[in-house]
Amino acid sequence: MVGTFEEAQVAATFDACEMRTMFISNYDYESSSYLPIAIPGHDGWFVIGKGSTRVAVLSPSNVIYKLHLYNEGPFNQREASYRKSLPDVIGICRVADSTLYNVDDEPVLAMEYIELPFAPKGQNSWDDDSLNKEIVRIEADCLEYEIYDVHDGNLGRDKDGTPVLIDYAG
Ligand SMILES: Nc1ncnc2c1ncn2[C@@H]1O[C@H](COP(=O)(O)OP(=O)(O)O)[C@@H](O)[C@H]1O
Ligand SMILES: [Mg+2]
User: Fold this and answer.
1) Is the CB of 155 within 6 Å of ligand 1?
2) Measured from the CB, is residue 53 less than 6 Å from ligand 1?
3) Atom nearest to 170 CA in ligand 1
4) Which residue's alpha carbon is at the smallest distance from atom 23 of ligand 1?
């Protein structure tokens, strides 16, 4: 189990689109990076990432909670049910643990917090050949499990450098 129902309940009170706006507004043009932003009125909670369908908040106990940007998205439910059929390691990549909490019918996905970014600062998968090969290798291995959205925004790393898949909703 990752996270707690109590924290999922707190996360469910956040408006996902508002969190995304706050997060984007906090982009740091100096360092060319998104920075975590504290959620007003909720000590120890931060908005830490956004994708095309979900926003990720970090709790005081260092757990990620993902909230749908749009209510219809079945992504959190899918991620949780996929996790059950996935091995802990796919090729060279570990799969982050996750747990689904249903808070008054809202699906909130808790996931272990993984260090980002996947690519070292100043490098990206387009112009770094070894990084690109690493990603393509993970992408190829993940096809077998019908995970089609492998890119550096959906990967992090363990402290020892092992790649970790953090988005396996599709
Ligand atoms: N387990 C995690 N640890 C650290 N950051 C995360 C984690 N899960 C998601 N994030 C951050 O939140 C962003 C959006 O989450 P993601 O699951 O990729 O949503 P989407 O399905 O919308 O692409 C990620 O690109 C990443 O920056
Ligand atoms: Mg993603």
Assistant:
1) no
2) yes
3) 21
4) 51
The answer to the question of residue 170 being in a domain is: no
Q: Whose CA is nearest to atom 17 of ligand 1?
A: 167
pLDDT in tens, 108-154: 999 999 999 888 776 666 666 888 899 999 999 999 999 999 999 99
Is 46 a member of any domain? yes
- Is the CB of residue 157 less than 8 Å from the CB of residue 149? no
Q: Please give the structure tokens belonging to residue 70.
A: 């749009």
Q: Which strands make up the sheet holding 106-112, listed edge to edge?
A: 37-38, 46-50, 54-58, 63-68, 106-112, 98-103
Domain that holds residue 19: 5-165
Q: Does residue 43 lie in a domain region? A: yes
Share of the chain above pLDDT 90, in %: 85
